[in-house]
Amino acid sequence: MKKTARKKDERTVLGVIQMGMTKNADYNVKKAVAMVTKARREGANVICLPELYRSQYFCQTENAMNFDLAEPAEGPSFATFAPLAKKIDAVIIVPFFERRAAGIYHNSALIIDTDGKAAGMYRKMHIPDDPNYYEKFYFTPGDLGFNSFITAHGAVGTLICWDQWYPEAARLTALDGAMMLCYPTAIGWHPREKREKGAAQLDAWMTVQRGHAIANGIYVAAANRIGLEKPADRSDGIEFWGSSFIADPQGVIIAQASVDKEEILIADIDTTHMENIRRNWPFFRDRRIDAFKDITKRYRDDGNDNNCGCGDDCDCHH
């Protein structure tokens, strides 16, 4: 049986960091430390940084020199935030570019507990390959699965950016006991598309994540970056749209940031509210887990005409 290390009746407060990144890694780290520390002063005891917080978003180009930005799991990010987590009594979600071995790199996140030790690590499972998002060049798909991590301030789940669009990932993380699901993120507009498609793109991004909150009765948060980042050899770049937010288990937005300012979002994680929502909208109870075997197929094109969903032992009359 899984047990949470959260102290009885202790208030869990989630903090989401929205920040812009420069080309100076040391400056980015110092800013992140300052914002995490401020979030703790404002009451947060679980704090999430944006995706790849140490650098600008280097995946806009395919350049092998960028692998020099990677670090091992117990590298500079861990060395910075592990003692900080212990000092301020906070759980910190630290996304980083992981060098696992020569030629094997991941887009990862450490969940550092209040004792300064890693409660766990997540490796991004869904890797995009789109214009200006050439992540398949850099990242090996994750192999640690979808998990929640028991911390001093509750069960924390984390996925990363492109994972936001996959309901299966959110479901499995929630089924593993997470009370909150945090998405470190780096997403924005191609400036040339913003006028025509920008509003719809941003709305879709928020809507799908609110859907994960509703379907799983869980708190969902996204920590995005801001600013226009333009690689030297490209003219357009990406305008990161900020808009970080926290949604409750009914998908209600309880905190939201602007599109262009560095901000800290703070919101209570109310387990009583979460329990009440799940009692009244019992989606977990009513799931037809006996009928979901085809979800592991790439596409249902095998010619099987038994589409009733009843499984191998079906005795329906079609």
Describe the structure.
- By secondary structure, the protein is of the alpha/beta class.
- It has a single domain (about 10-290), classed as 4-Layer Sandwich (Nitrilase/N-carbamoyl-D-aminoacid amidohydrolase).
- Helix content is about 25%, strand content about 25%.
- The chain has six helices and 17 strands.
- It has helices spanning about 25-40, 75-90, 165-175, 190-215, 270-280, 285, and strands at about 10-20, 45-50, 90-100, 105-110, 120-125, 130, 135, 150, 155-160, 180-185, 190, 220-225, 225-230, 240, 245, 255, 265-270.
- Strands 1, 2, 3, 4, 5, 11, 13, 14 and 17 form a nine-stranded mixed sheet that branches. Strands 8-9-10-12-15-16 form a six-stranded mixed sheet, covered by helices on one side.
- A hairpin with a 5-residue loop joins strand 15 and strand 16 (about 255).
- It is globular.
- The mean pLDDT is about 95.
